[in-house]
Amino acid sequence: MIKENSAIRKSDVINRRMFIIGAAKIVVFAGIVARLFSLQINENKKYLTLSDKNRIREWKLPPTRGNIVDYFGNIIAGNLKVYQLHIIPEQVENFNYLLLRLKTLLNLSDKKIQKITKLKNQLKPWDSIIVSENLSWSQFLKVNNYLYDLVGAKPVMTISRNYPFSEMYTHVLGYVSQPNEEEILENEIVKERFVPGMKIGKLGLEKTLEKQLIGTNAIQRYEVNAYGKRINQLEYQKGLQGKKIRLTVDTEVQKLSAQLLLNKAGSISVMDIYTGDIIAMYSSPSYDPNLFLFGISQDEWQLIRNNPLKPLINKTLSGLYSPGSTIKPIVALSALENNIVNPNFKVKCTGKTELYGQTFHCWKEKGHGFVSLKNAMKQSCDTYFYEVARLLGVDRLNVTAKKFGLGEKVLGEYFDNEKSGLFPNTNWKRNNLGRGWVLGETLITGIGQGYIQTTPLQLCLMTAQIANGGYKIKPKIIVNDDPLSLENAKTAMELQSLQTPNTKLFNDPKNIKIVQEAMFSSTNEQFGTSYRSRIDDPKYQFAGKTGTAQVKRISKRERELDLKLEQIPYKDRDHALYVAYGPYKNPRYALSIIVEHGGSGSKAAAPMAKELFKLIIDRDELRDKQSNFENINI
Amino acid sequence: MYQRDRLNSELSFFQKIKEIDYTLLICIILLSIISLLVMYSTDGGEVLYHTKSHFSKLVVFFPLMILIAFFNIRHWHTFGYIFYFLIILLLFYVSFFGLKASGSQRWMDLYLFVLQPSELMKIAVILCLAKYYHRIKIENVNTFTSITLVLSIILVPIILVISQPDLGTSVLIALSGLIILWLGGVKIKYFVYSFITFLISLPFIISFLKPYQKLRILTFLDPDRDPLGAGYQIIQSKIAIGSGGLEGKGFLKGTQSYLDFLPEKHTDFIFTLFSEEFGFIGSVGLLILYTIIIFRIIRIGALSRSNFSKLFCFGFAFSIFIYIVVNLSMVLGLLPIVGSPLPIMSYGGSSMLATMIGFGIVLSAKINRKQTIA
């Protein structure tokens, strides 16, 4: 019985102690339920977000750039379907084998293979590596044929920039290429939208209009597993193509310009004298911007870089030239405006003039005899302009020249490589060179030599503003929202001059008229310097001024030798210039031509104007019809 | 004497069937079905390896449980020490010849399945100590010899399991053993003193821990210190449970587990998957099911006439409770990560075998609740 008793006592102990634990169990379970409640009910939102963040990953695709079209709606910078080959590292089974296969299939260089391997180590395993950006159709087919053996490689069809007129617009548009690290960090928009394979503008309008052109990324949302492998696509969000930009340029005129300057270094610019529309702007020689899209090869790059005609320089905007005699209309106008001379004022040209023991030569050794303003302009008599400049002084000349836009950028906001040039005055010399102005320098400034430096576009603008009767215009290359018709543009220009007096560039309209007539005679009257390039048909008739800018001082010996162009080394030949506007009766367009080391303006540059005016004026009507933007379907 | 004989007389087969605790049995069947569904979900909604394997284990172990239930509890009392020593032998065997996996040596290959003796030790230690306290006189419980003996019964397997190394299981074995000591009547002050001693010596214990074990504790204290490394499991587990919400994401729709963000989703983190798919309601429901099972076992213990049955049922109920608490606290981020499966739910043969043996003995205790054991 003792044993029985013990068993019962023991049983009591067991039951009692079990009860204590049972109570504890309920408390602990309640604690666990509370924890579940806090996680699943209270913090549910937080964890749901985290769970989605876990499983959803976004892939950005390169945005599609906006098209750039010319005035007539022809695409001059568009987009083209290209075939590419990507590698997605996480899907690759054997990286070395894949590279080996691709190397033989696509003839990749060892350098390229090294680059891919390096990229693979830098990028995340789900980021694609672009092996080839531009596969030919046959290469694309080949890759697709062997795809079973290329695990992890992905043939991709995508869109890339394309310049259908190749080198025609390079200096206007610039080109696009892969951004470097600095460019990505610098530009907020580029940083935000960057994906491998995206290209950004490196030069010209492609660069300055980046924000409008770039477009937005298309976004693919995928559900991924813990290893980042895509399981299924949840969403595809289409990107917006960049804004379409319409330029004022005319491809036909641009083409002719390129043709005229073929194998020459130089520049042609054509401008609407009322609206400031730039109709052509060509710098020769040019280069093919398509070469830069997928990385230019070293050989091609060296070929461009080492070309003695310097294709990389945009001569229209950043080429600085002495204007030579093309400055004479401004000198004449300034003298008339300041009442230094009247149209009947005459100077006797003996071929040279002496000042303080220094001899200043006229281009015509025998001299022009007695010349009036009109004749001096017509025959480009240097002696006359030496005298006028002497009487006028460089400071007053500077004021007029500045008004007409010399010495300041024309399209500065769009082209960061544009130069402002220089029109000197006495203060400038004292401040910058630390020496006083010398009267002899005034004389050579009067014929567009010396310190004076202008860009071809400045000369074009200058001519346009003389042609339109002396009103300031704002040159532009991008079509505004509402282009004006000719009549409206004219009225708007004159109206504006009443409201803001500084856009009127003259005091007496008679003076402008005199200069215009002088330029007319230079082209259309016998003995005029560009008489041989004239067009008699009043529809095309134009007025112009030649210029021949010395690139080095002519020594006495050379002057006596009177060498022919071919006998002078290329580097020492004069630059040929020509500025003109037309049609004379009812002017609409102005142009400037410069042929580097082309010899005299009348022989090398003026004949080009003849060709250009024929085309420009023929297309005048067509252009007017295009002024309404809505009519263009692209 | 007559009464005892009457009570101890063998029941007929049909009487036994009648005496089975059907509430407990239904709960176990329900739990098995849920575990199969969850396993099906871990396989991504297909009947693949884990589902098949789990199912075949259930098919083998469930009849084993019934078989055990049909043996008189007396036999399990007799078998108590032998079972314990058998498992000790197996533990020795694995520490020399066991299979190695992920840095520890705790398995033996039985051709049909891989056995982890330490899991069986969880049951063996309860069985052994239940027999010991059944047999000892209550006056002798707190003698020095008795306490030394029971402590060594607990310590020998613990040392063997820790050396595998497997901290989680050894802690669970220790807790299972200690609860029998508690129930057996060891003085409360001893528990209090040793708990205080444990707290004081904790820093020294920690210094003896392996680097990965220390890391687990640090990670538990701050999972974000290494979100892709050691803290990854617990962060992903919390995300999965938390994103389940009230109603869950739906069966087979748990993105965290489906997309492989959950590690160990078949075994220790099975509750995470369940909770993600069935939400707060499902989780609490599962917890209620476990609670019913536990209290049913306690009830059987309370109804049992013999102290051996009482001790075993109470001890086993407490063990299951501890397994659940440790596992859930771990996946809910309340405790450091120690490998501990969720009974029946987790994939793993040895754990299921141990649990089913336990349930079998409990059912046997119910059938033979009036049986006294000398």
Write a structural description.
The complex is a heterodimer of chains A (634) and B (374). By secondary structure, chain A is α+β, with helices and mostly antiparallel strands. In chain A, strands 2, 3, 4, 5 and 10 form a five-stranded mixed β-sheet that branches. A five-stranded antiparallel β-sheet of chain A has the order 12-11-19-18-17. Chain A starts with a helix and ends in a 9-residue tail after the last helix. Chain B is mostly helical and 374 residues long. In chain B, 71% of the residues lie in helices and 3% in strands. Chain B has helices at residues 2-8, 13-19, 22-42, 49-70, 73-97, 117-135, 144-162, 167-184, 188-208, 211-221, 232-244, 255-258, 270-303, 307-331, 349-367, and strands at residues 99-101, 104-109, 114-115. In chain B, strands 1-2-3 form a three-stranded antiparallel β-sheet, with helices on one face. In chain B, β1 (99-101) and β2 (104-109) form a beta hairpin. The model of chain B has no long low-confidence stretch (mean pLDDT 87). The chains are: A alpha+beta (634), B mainly alpha (374). At the A-B interface, α1 and α2 of A face α8, α11, α13 and α14 of B.
Number of helices of chain A: 25
**Overall SS class of chain B:** mainly alpha
**Overall form of chain A:** elongated
Instruction: Assign a percent range to the helix content of chain A.
Output: 40-55%
Major beta sheet summary of chain B: 3 strands, antiparallel
What portion of the residues of chain A fall into strands of 2 or more residues?
15-25%
Number of helices of chain B: 15
Shape of chain B: globular
* Largest interface, counted by CB within 8 Å of the partner chain's CB: A-B, 38 and 47 residues
Assembly state (oligomeric): heterodimer
Strand content of chain B: under 5%
N-to-C CA distance of chain A: 111 Å
Q: Largest sheet of chain A, described in full?
A: 5 strands, mixed
Order of helices and strands of chain B: HHHHHEEEHHHHHHHHHH
